[in-house]
Amino acid sequence: MDLNQQLSYLLKLNTNEFSDNLVALKQTISNLDLFPTYPTILVAGTNGKGSTCAYLSTILTLAGYRVGTFTSPHIFNYNERICINNQAIDNNSLTEVLQQVIDTCPINPGLFKAFTLCAHLYFIQQKVDIAVIEVGIGGLNDATNLFDPTISVITSISHDHSQILGNTLEEIGKQKAGIFRKNTPAFIGMQNPPQSVIKYAGEINANLQILGTDFSYTKHELSFDVYSRSDKYFGLPYPALRGMEQISNATLAICVLAELKPGFPVPLSSIKTGLLQVKLPGRLSILPGLPQIILDVAHNEEAVSQMLKNMLKLPFVKHNYAVFGMASDKDIPAVIALAKEQFNQWFIAPINSKRSINNDELIQIMQNNGIAKNRILAFETISKALTHAKSISRNDDRIVCFGSFLVVEEAYRCN
User: Fold this and answer.
1) Are the C-beta atoms of residues 215 and 255 closer than 8 Å to each other?
2) What are the pLDDT digits (tens) for 397-409?
3) Nearest in space to 251 (alpha carbons), one of 66, 84, 51
4) What DSSP line would sit under 24-47, residue for residue?
């Protein structure tokens, strides 16, 4: 099969239940002899996973290591999910490792699980020094958790994927804590995490470090300081990624790197340069030109709340316009309730997914939450919604595209 045929085959499987078919996956891992000898940093969390992985990969690459990174979802193409030193896997290599996984697995593993195995297969072939792996959903039953991490990281815990992970933060926390391992370092980048996380770490004797208790940061006007258990880092530049939450994400990554020493020493110069050079599309990304267009992958209550707070830090504009679409399995009413007063006009459209909510249902939710019908315009696609928003915007207006990775992907392609 060529790459397009492979992707079509894998996408035929309903991948909503991430815990399905792990037995077949374990057998495939054994058949492929997929037993990495390189250390692995496994990163879970509701929000901040991608940013934390980007800091880790960029800083380690600048320090001279060969770094494999697996993340999801992608923005532009599937190759982005598997990188070495922040360079995406080429089509020929991706086709080769995908075919090995497809041929070896007794069932259709689905896209995410196949790519998880492909990442490690490729990293072994390419002899990476270390791997940074982003969890898909939860942690305990995620395919990424079939490979034992050297360090486990949880960025944050909030409500998302409740149909799979549970309806309370304690339930969700227990699922995410499933990536912890006995007698190994574990980090969580939030203060006052759910007790289920602390309890599980204690039960297996994981070496848990909590933001604000075991590691921390101090912000200054033009820099910030980081305090890990073993090191202090003064005068660090603010990260290139925008948003107040990025200081916390960067601190978490730096303290994880401190834990890797002495096996992976990282000079301060690599940390400072990495903070300035890190790139990650769709995290409060501002496109050049006017009107100002912001792209943000925020798609749950916590992420949208943070996005709105970050908007308040930006220069004043006359009108804020939303280009918006979401998957139907997200908590759309909670997101709308948060954002309804922040936008003068909403330009909505389905996202390019069978999971998308349709316009009629979305309009009903919006009206139920107090958004007048004359403030909502519906379109067939995100591209058409953004094109219309730009056509009515003046230079002193702002357009914010959010609600899904797929909104951001289509908005990028539209510009």
Assistant:
1) yes
2) 999 999 999 999 9
3) 51
4) HHHHHHHHTT----S-EEEEE-SS
Looking at CATH, the fold of the domain delimited by 3-277 is given as UDP-N-acetylmuramoyl-L-alanine:D-glutamate ligase (3.40.1190)
Tens digits of residue pLDDT in 22-61: 889 999 999 999 999 999 999 999 889 999 999 999 999 9
Provide the residue type at 413 as one letter. R
d(CA 359, CA 377): 10
Distance (Å, whole) CA 138 – CA 176: 5
Tokens encoding 67: 């770094």
> What is the rounded CA–CA span in Å between residue 168 and residue 174?
10
DSSP string, 106-173: SS---HHHHHHHHHHHHHHHTT-SEEEEE-SSSSTT-GGGGS--SEEEE----S--HHHH-SSHHHHH
CA torsion, ordered 127, 128, 130, 133, to nearest 10 deg: -110
Rounded Cα distance, 253 and 255, in Å: 5
> Do the Cβ atoms of 253 and 154 come closer than 8 Å?
no
pLDDT in tens, 302-356: 899 999 999 988 889 999 999 999 999 899 999 999 999 999 999 999 999 988 9
Residues 410 and 369 sit within 8 Å (Cβ to Cβ): no
280 within 8 A of 294, measured Cβ to Cβ:
no
Question: What are the structural domain ranges in the chain?
Answer: 3-277, 285-414
Are 228 and 206 a contacting pair, CB within 8 Å?
no
**Whole-angstrom distance, CA of residue 415 vs CA of residue 32:** 42
State pTM to two decimals: 0.93
Helix axes 111-125, 22-31, angle to 10 degrees: 20
Between CA 230 and CA 405 the distance in angstroms is 37
Phi then psi for residue 397, to 5 deg, are -110, 170
Rounding to the nearest 10 degrees, give the CA dihedral for residues 113, 62, 211, 80: -30
Q: What is the DSSP letter of 356?
A: B
**What would the CATH number be for the domain defined by 285-414?**
3.90.190.20
